[in-house]
Design brief:
123 residues, mainly beta, four-stranded antiparallel sheet, 60% strand
């Protein structure tokens, strides 16, 4: 099976910083892309930042986090990071890691998700 394990969430004051990590492991042949999504109470899950594992590591960010968040990867460790700076109360949400990968058991490409980590920004 495939596992995505997130870490690094927590509580921080406005203007503070947090760093999230997500490590993918298990029956993986290849990862095409990884990313972070978030879901605030009463809202739909939204994309925060994505990065391709192949093709030079191109990135994509939600407009609301551009200039504040940075996504990066360590291909050797199948790990993706999200550096979050200048955090705002509206960044409060459960953050989920996502990977689009080729599963060695099913031999199919598919989306896999972590269990989520809470990020709370408040004074």
């Amino acid at each position: 099976q495939v596992q995505l394990v997130e870490s690094g969430g927590g509580s921080v004051q406005p203007g503070g910083s947090l760093r999230l990590s997500c490590a993918a492991s298990g029956r993986i042949i290849r990862i095409n892309a990884m990313g972070w999504y978030r879901q605030a109470p009463g809202k739909e899950r939204e994309s925060v930042a994505t990065i391709t594992i192949t093709s030079g590591g191109s990135t994509n960010y939600a407009d609301s986090v551009k200039g504040r968040f940075t996504i990066s990867r360590d291909n050797a460790k199948n790990t993706v990071y999200l550096e979050m700076n200048s955090l705002k109360p509206e960044d409060t949400a459960v953050y989920y890691c996502n990977a689009y990968l080729l599963d060695s058991l099913s031999i199919r490409w598919g989306d896999y998700w972590g269990q989520g980590t809470q990020v709370t920004v408040s004074a």
